[in-house]
Amino acid sequence: MDKFVVALIAASVVTLLIRLIPFVLVRFIMLPYRLQLFLKYVPLAMMTALFLHAIWSREHGLDLMGVVFVIPALIYGWWRQSLTGVVVISVVLMALWRSFGG
Amino acid sequence: MTRTFGQSFKDALPLSVSYMSIGLAYGMIAAAAGFSVWQVAATSLFLYAGAAQFLLVNLLSQQVAWVTIALLIFLVNFRFVLMSLSMAHYFQKQPWWSALLMGPLVTDESYGLFTMAHNRGEQLSIGWMQGVNVWSYVAWFIASVVGAAFGKLVPDPQRYGLDFALVGMFAGLWILTVQGFWQTMSAKRRQLLTLVLLSASVYIAVMLLWSDTAAILCATLVGGVYGMLLEKEPTHG
User: Fold this and answer.
1) Contacts of A91 in chain B (CB under 8 A)
2) Are B41 and B166 in contact (CB under 8 A)?
Protein backbone atom coordinates (compact mmCIF):
# COMPACT_ATOMS: atom_id res chain seq x y z
CA MET A 1 0.00 0.00 0.00
CA ASP A 2 1.40 3.37 -0.78
CA LYS A 3 2.84 5.55 1.97
CA PHE A 4 0.08 8.09 1.77
CA VAL A 5 -2.67 5.54 2.36
CA VAL A 6 -0.90 3.89 5.29
CA ALA A 7 -0.13 7.20 6.98
CA LEU A 8 -3.67 8.46 6.44
CA ILE A 9 -5.25 5.31 7.85
CA ALA A 10 -2.98 5.37 10.89
CA ALA A 11 -3.61 9.06 11.52
CA SER A 12 -7.36 8.71 11.03
CA VAL A 13 -7.70 5.69 13.31
CA VAL A 14 -5.73 7.37 16.05
CA THR A 15 -7.80 10.54 15.77
CA LEU A 16 -11.07 8.61 15.65
CA LEU A 17 -10.20 6.77 18.85
CA ILE A 18 -9.28 10.03 20.57
CA ARG A 19 -12.60 11.55 19.61
CA LEU A 20 -14.84 8.53 20.25
CA ILE A 21 -13.50 6.86 23.39
CA PRO A 22 -14.82 9.55 25.73
CA PHE A 23 -18.29 9.06 24.28
CA VAL A 24 -18.03 5.34 24.93
CA LEU A 25 -16.59 5.91 28.39
CA VAL A 26 -19.37 8.20 29.46
CA ARG A 27 -22.00 5.53 28.78
CA PHE A 28 -20.45 3.11 31.22
CA ILE A 29 -18.84 5.25 33.84
CA MET A 30 -20.34 7.88 36.03
CA LEU A 31 -17.82 10.72 35.95
CA PRO A 32 -16.48 11.54 39.40
CA TYR A 33 -17.66 14.86 40.81
CA ARG A 34 -14.20 16.40 40.77
CA LEU A 35 -13.85 15.52 37.11
CA GLN A 36 -17.17 17.17 36.32
CA LEU A 37 -16.02 20.34 38.05
CA PHE A 38 -12.81 20.22 36.08
CA LEU A 39 -14.75 19.79 32.83
CA LYS A 40 -16.89 22.78 33.72
CA TYR A 41 -13.86 25.05 33.54
CA VAL A 42 -12.05 23.31 30.71
CA PRO A 43 -13.85 25.36 28.03
CA LEU A 44 -12.59 28.64 29.41
CA ALA A 45 -9.03 27.35 29.77
CA MET A 46 -9.07 25.54 26.42
CA MET A 47 -10.46 28.48 24.43
CA THR A 48 -7.88 30.78 26.02
CA ALA A 49 -5.14 28.40 24.91
CA LEU A 50 -6.58 27.89 21.42
CA PHE A 51 -7.04 31.61 20.86
CA LEU A 52 -3.52 32.42 22.00
CA HIS A 53 -2.21 29.59 19.85
CA ALA A 54 -3.83 31.17 16.80
CA ILE A 55 -1.93 34.40 17.48
CA TRP A 56 1.32 33.17 18.94
CA SER A 57 2.86 29.78 18.42
CA ARG A 58 6.21 28.18 17.75
CA GLU A 59 4.95 27.12 14.38
CA HIS A 60 3.87 30.53 13.13
CA GLY A 61 5.56 32.96 15.48
CA LEU A 62 3.84 36.02 16.87
CA ASP A 63 1.37 37.70 14.59
CA LEU A 64 1.79 41.28 15.76
CA MET A 65 -0.59 42.84 13.26
CA GLY A 66 -2.98 40.05 14.09
CA VAL A 67 -2.95 41.12 17.72
CA VAL A 68 -3.63 44.69 16.70
CA PHE A 69 -6.58 43.82 14.46
CA VAL A 70 -8.09 41.30 16.79
CA ILE A 71 -8.60 43.88 19.53
CA PRO A 72 -11.32 45.92 17.84
CA ALA A 73 -12.92 42.66 16.73
CA LEU A 74 -12.96 41.44 20.34
CA ILE A 75 -14.51 44.66 21.54
CA TYR A 76 -17.21 44.36 18.93
CA GLY A 77 -17.73 40.74 19.90
CA TRP A 78 -18.27 41.62 23.57
CA TRP A 79 -20.56 44.49 22.73
CA ARG A 80 -22.67 42.82 20.05
CA GLN A 81 -22.21 39.18 21.02
CA SER A 82 -21.77 38.28 17.40
CA LEU A 83 -19.33 35.59 16.33
CA THR A 84 -19.74 36.41 12.66
CA GLY A 85 -19.02 40.05 13.42
CA VAL A 86 -15.72 39.22 15.04
CA VAL A 87 -14.67 37.06 12.11
CA VAL A 88 -15.73 39.59 9.47
CA ILE A 89 -14.09 42.55 11.19
CA SER A 90 -10.84 40.59 11.62
CA VAL A 91 -10.75 39.53 7.98
CA VAL A 92 -11.64 42.96 6.61
CA LEU A 93 -9.02 44.74 8.72
CA MET A 94 -6.36 42.25 7.70
CA ALA A 95 -7.34 42.46 4.04
CA LEU A 96 -7.16 46.27 4.11
CA TRP A 97 -3.81 46.15 5.83
CA ARG A 98 -2.35 43.68 3.35
CA SER A 99 -3.70 45.53 0.35
CA PHE A 100 -2.72 49.05 1.38
CA GLY A 101 -0.46 48.94 4.39
CA GLY A 102 1.69 45.85 4.85
CA MET B 1 -34.29 28.46 25.22
CA THR B 2 -33.36 25.30 23.36
CA ARG B 3 -31.37 25.42 20.19
CA THR B 4 -32.54 22.81 17.72
CA PHE B 5 -31.48 21.21 14.45
CA GLY B 6 -33.43 23.82 12.51
CA GLN B 7 -31.18 26.54 13.87
CA SER B 8 -27.96 24.61 13.44
CA PHE B 9 -27.25 25.68 9.86
CA LYS B 10 -27.43 29.37 10.66
CA ASP B 11 -25.54 28.95 13.94
CA ALA B 12 -22.80 27.05 12.13
CA LEU B 13 -22.39 29.73 9.44
CA PRO B 14 -19.48 31.61 11.08
CA LEU B 15 -17.78 28.26 11.51
CA SER B 16 -18.47 27.26 7.94
CA VAL B 17 -17.09 30.55 6.64
CA SER B 18 -13.90 30.17 8.61
CA TYR B 19 -13.62 26.50 7.65
CA MET B 20 -14.05 27.44 4.02
CA SER B 21 -11.19 29.87 4.05
CA ILE B 22 -8.82 27.56 5.91
CA GLY B 23 -10.05 24.58 3.92
CA LEU B 24 -9.26 26.44 0.70
CA ALA B 25 -5.80 27.25 2.01
CA TYR B 26 -5.27 23.64 3.01
CA GLY B 27 -6.36 22.35 -0.39
CA MET B 28 -4.10 24.82 -2.16
CA ILE B 29 -1.11 23.99 0.00
CA ALA B 30 -1.58 20.24 -0.29
CA ALA B 31 -1.93 20.51 -4.07
CA ALA B 32 1.17 22.67 -4.24
CA ALA B 33 3.01 19.97 -2.27
CA GLY B 34 2.06 17.45 -4.94
CA PHE B 35 -1.04 15.78 -3.50
CA SER B 36 -3.87 14.97 -5.88
CA VAL B 37 -7.42 16.21 -5.44
CA TRP B 38 -8.45 12.64 -4.49
CA GLN B 39 -5.81 12.53 -1.79
CA VAL B 40 -6.84 15.89 -0.43
CA ALA B 41 -10.47 14.75 -0.42
CA ALA B 42 -9.50 11.59 1.46
CA THR B 43 -7.66 13.50 4.17
CA SER B 44 -10.59 15.83 4.73
CA LEU B 45 -13.06 12.96 4.73
CA PHE B 46 -11.21 10.60 7.06
CA LEU B 47 -8.93 12.72 9.20
CA TYR B 48 -11.02 15.90 9.34
CA ALA B 49 -8.71 17.88 11.59
CA GLY B 50 -7.13 21.04 10.20
CA ALA B 51 -3.92 21.15 12.19
CA ALA B 52 -3.38 17.42 11.76
CA GLN B 53 -4.05 17.60 8.03
CA PHE B 54 -1.49 20.36 7.53
CA LEU B 55 0.94 18.32 9.60
CA LEU B 56 0.24 15.13 7.65
CA VAL B 57 0.89 16.81 4.31
CA ASN B 58 4.03 18.41 5.67
CA LEU B 59 5.46 15.21 7.15
CA LEU B 60 4.61 13.05 4.14
CA SER B 61 6.39 15.42 1.81
CA GLN B 62 9.44 15.02 4.04
CA GLN B 63 9.24 11.22 3.78
CA VAL B 64 8.65 10.75 7.49
CA ALA B 65 7.72 7.19 8.52
CA TRP B 66 4.02 6.46 9.06
CA VAL B 67 4.54 5.40 12.66
CA THR B 68 6.12 8.72 13.50
CA ILE B 69 3.36 10.54 11.68
CA ALA B 70 0.69 8.65 13.60
CA LEU B 71 2.40 9.41 16.90
CA LEU B 72 2.76 13.13 16.16
CA ILE B 73 -0.85 13.36 15.06
CA PHE B 74 -1.91 11.55 18.22
CA LEU B 75 -0.13 14.21 20.26
CA VAL B 76 -1.44 17.11 18.24
CA ASN B 77 -5.02 15.85 18.43
CA PHE B 78 -4.92 14.69 22.02
CA ARG B 79 -6.78 17.81 23.13
CA PHE B 80 -9.89 16.30 21.51
CA VAL B 81 -10.11 13.92 24.46
CA LEU B 82 -11.06 16.76 26.75
CA MET B 83 -13.44 18.27 24.24
CA SER B 84 -15.14 14.94 23.62
CA LEU B 85 -15.39 14.31 27.34
CA SER B 86 -17.12 17.65 27.80
CA MET B 87 -19.54 17.09 24.95
CA ALA B 88 -20.18 13.45 25.75
CA HIS B 89 -21.01 14.38 29.32
CA TYR B 90 -23.47 17.04 28.22
CA PHE B 91 -25.16 14.78 25.68
CA GLN B 92 -24.94 11.61 27.75
CA LYS B 93 -28.56 10.70 27.16
CA GLN B 94 -28.15 10.23 23.42
CA PRO B 95 -28.53 6.76 21.84
CA TRP B 96 -25.34 4.90 20.95
CA TRP B 97 -25.71 5.45 17.21
CA SER B 98 -26.05 9.18 17.79
CA ALA B 99 -22.85 9.21 19.80
CA LEU B 100 -21.15 7.31 17.00
CA LEU B 101 -21.99 10.16 14.63
CA MET B 102 -21.20 12.99 17.06
CA GLY B 103 -17.83 11.77 18.32
CA PRO B 104 -15.83 11.65 15.09
CA LEU B 105 -16.86 15.17 14.12
CA VAL B 106 -15.50 16.91 17.21
CA THR B 107 -13.28 19.85 16.26
CA ASP B 108 -11.82 22.91 17.98
CA GLU B 109 -14.32 25.20 16.38
CA SER B 110 -17.45 23.09 16.87
CA TYR B 111 -16.39 22.58 20.46
CA GLY B 112 -15.93 26.32 20.78
CA LEU B 113 -19.42 26.94 19.42
CA PHE B 114 -20.82 24.31 21.76
CA THR B 115 -19.21 25.81 24.85
CA MET B 116 -20.07 29.35 23.84
CA ALA B 117 -23.75 28.52 23.40
CA HIS B 118 -23.84 26.32 26.50
CA ASN B 119 -22.23 28.96 28.68
CA ARG B 120 -24.73 31.55 27.60
CA GLY B 121 -27.35 29.41 29.23
CA GLU B 122 -28.78 27.89 26.06
CA GLN B 123 -30.08 24.33 26.06
CA LEU B 124 -28.59 22.49 23.14
CA SER B 125 -30.47 19.66 21.48
CA ILE B 126 -28.63 16.62 20.16
CA GLY B 127 -29.95 17.50 16.73
CA TRP B 128 -28.42 20.96 17.01
CA MET B 129 -24.99 19.57 17.73
CA GLN B 130 -25.26 16.99 14.96
CA GLY B 131 -26.37 19.72 12.57
CA VAL B 132 -23.49 22.03 13.47
CA ASN B 133 -21.04 19.15 13.08
CA VAL B 134 -22.37 18.01 9.72
CA TRP B 135 -22.60 21.48 8.12
CA SER B 136 -19.05 22.20 9.24
CA TYR B 137 -17.80 18.86 7.91
CA VAL B 138 -19.39 19.50 4.53
CA ALA B 139 -18.01 23.05 4.35
CA TRP B 140 -14.51 21.86 5.17
CA PHE B 141 -14.63 19.01 2.66
CA ILE B 142 -15.89 21.15 -0.20
CA ALA B 143 -13.45 23.95 0.52
CA SER B 144 -10.42 21.68 0.64
CA VAL B 145 -11.38 19.93 -2.60
CA VAL B 146 -12.04 23.26 -4.35
CA GLY B 147 -8.76 24.64 -3.01
CA ALA B 148 -6.86 21.63 -4.34
CA ALA B 149 -8.60 21.69 -7.70
CA PHE B 150 -8.60 25.41 -8.43
CA GLY B 151 -6.06 26.93 -6.05
CA LYS B 152 -3.60 27.76 -8.80
CA LEU B 153 -6.11 30.11 -10.37
CA VAL B 154 -6.02 32.59 -7.49
CA PRO B 155 -2.86 34.71 -7.79
CA ASP B 156 -2.51 36.22 -4.34
CA PRO B 157 -4.85 34.64 -1.81
CA GLN B 158 -3.21 36.41 1.13
CA ARG B 159 -4.58 39.77 0.01
CA TYR B 160 -8.08 38.85 1.01
CA GLY B 161 -7.12 38.21 4.59
CA LEU B 162 -9.13 35.02 4.55
CA ASP B 163 -6.50 33.00 6.36
CA PHE B 164 -7.00 35.41 9.22
CA ALA B 165 -10.57 34.18 9.51
CA LEU B 166 -9.36 31.34 11.70
CA VAL B 167 -7.79 33.78 14.16
CA GLY B 168 -10.98 35.83 14.08
CA MET B 169 -12.96 32.68 14.75
CA PHE B 170 -10.94 31.69 17.80
CA ALA B 171 -10.94 35.27 19.04
CA GLY B 172 -14.72 35.39 18.76
CA LEU B 173 -15.24 32.01 20.37
CA TRP B 174 -12.96 32.99 23.23
CA ILE B 175 -14.53 36.36 23.97
CA LEU B 176 -18.03 34.93 23.84
CA THR B 177 -17.05 32.01 26.07
CA VAL B 178 -15.54 34.47 28.54
CA GLN B 179 -18.69 36.55 28.36
CA GLY B 180 -20.83 33.49 29.04
CA PHE B 181 -18.84 32.64 32.15
CA TRP B 182 -18.77 36.31 33.16
CA GLN B 183 -22.52 36.60 33.02
CA THR B 184 -23.47 33.30 34.60
CA MET B 185 -20.87 33.33 37.37
CA SER B 186 -20.96 36.94 38.49
CA ALA B 187 -19.88 36.03 42.02
CA LYS B 188 -16.64 34.54 40.74
CA ARG B 189 -15.52 37.12 38.21
CA ARG B 190 -12.18 37.80 39.79
CA GLN B 191 -11.41 34.07 39.83
CA LEU B 192 -12.46 33.78 36.21
CA LEU B 193 -10.00 36.50 35.25
CA THR B 194 -7.34 34.74 37.25
CA LEU B 195 -8.10 31.51 35.43
CA VAL B 196 -7.75 33.18 32.04
CA LEU B 197 -4.47 34.86 33.02
CA LEU B 198 -3.21 31.61 34.49
CA SER B 199 -4.01 29.58 31.39
CA ALA B 200 -2.57 32.30 29.19
CA SER B 201 0.67 32.41 31.17
CA VAL B 202 1.03 28.65 31.18
CA TYR B 203 0.36 28.54 27.44
CA ILE B 204 3.01 31.15 26.70
CA ALA B 205 5.60 29.64 29.02
CA VAL B 206 5.16 26.06 27.79
CA MET B 207 5.00 27.17 24.17
CA LEU B 208 8.28 29.08 24.46
CA LEU B 209 10.00 26.33 26.39
CA TRP B 210 8.58 23.19 24.86
CA SER B 211 5.96 22.86 22.13
CA ASP B 212 2.65 24.25 20.89
CA THR B 213 0.76 21.04 21.57
CA ALA B 214 2.11 20.69 25.10
CA ALA B 215 1.31 24.34 25.69
CA ILE B 216 -2.35 23.92 24.75
CA LEU B 217 -2.70 20.82 26.91
CA CYS B 218 -0.90 22.25 29.93
CA ALA B 219 -2.78 25.53 29.78
CA THR B 220 -6.07 23.64 29.63
CA LEU B 221 -5.16 21.29 32.46
CA VAL B 222 -3.87 24.00 34.75
CA GLY B 223 -6.84 26.28 34.10
CA GLY B 224 -9.31 23.45 34.54
CA VAL B 225 -7.70 22.26 37.76
CA TYR B 226 -7.64 25.82 39.10
CA GLY B 227 -11.37 26.14 38.41
CA MET B 228 -12.01 22.76 40.01
CA LEU B 229 -10.09 23.72 43.13
CA LEU B 230 -12.06 26.96 43.37
CA GLU B 231 -15.19 24.98 43.99
CA LYS B 232 -13.84 22.67 46.63
CA GLU B 233 -16.37 22.20 49.41
CA PRO B 234 -15.44 24.41 52.36
CA THR B 235 -15.91 21.54 54.77
CA HIS B 236 -13.01 19.65 53.14
CA GLY B 237 -10.12 19.25 55.56
Assistant:
1) 21, 160-162, 164-165, 168
2) no
**Contact criterion met (CB below 8 Å) for A94 and A66:** yes
The whole-angstrom distance between A90's CA and the closest CA on chain B is 5
Indicate the pTM of the whole model. 0.82
Nearest to B88 among A23, A44, A66 (CB): A23
ipTM at complex level: 0.87
Q: How far is A2 from chain B (nearest CA, A)?
A: 11
Q: DSSP per residue over A7-66, as a string? A: HHHHHHHHHHHHHHHHHHHHHH-PPPHHHHHHHHHHHHHHHHHHHHHHHEETTTEE-HHH
pLDDT, tens digit (0-9, with 9 covering 90-100), for B154-207: 766 666 677 788 888 889 889 988 998 998 888 889 999 999 999 999 999 999
CA dihedral B158, B12, B40, A56 (to 10 degrees): 50
Report how many Cβ contacts below 8 Å link chain A to chain B: 289
Using a CB cutoff of 8 Å and minimum separation of 24, what contacts does B229-235 make?
B230/A41, B230/B188, B230/B191, B231/A37
Determine the residue among B93, B122, B167, B177 to mutate to test chain A binding: the one whose Cβ has the most chain A Cβ atoms within 10 Å.
B167
- Please write the tens of the pLDDT for every residue from B52-71: 998 899 889 888 899 999 99
Residues 6+ apart with CB under 8 A from B31: B37, B40, B147, B148, B149, B151, B152
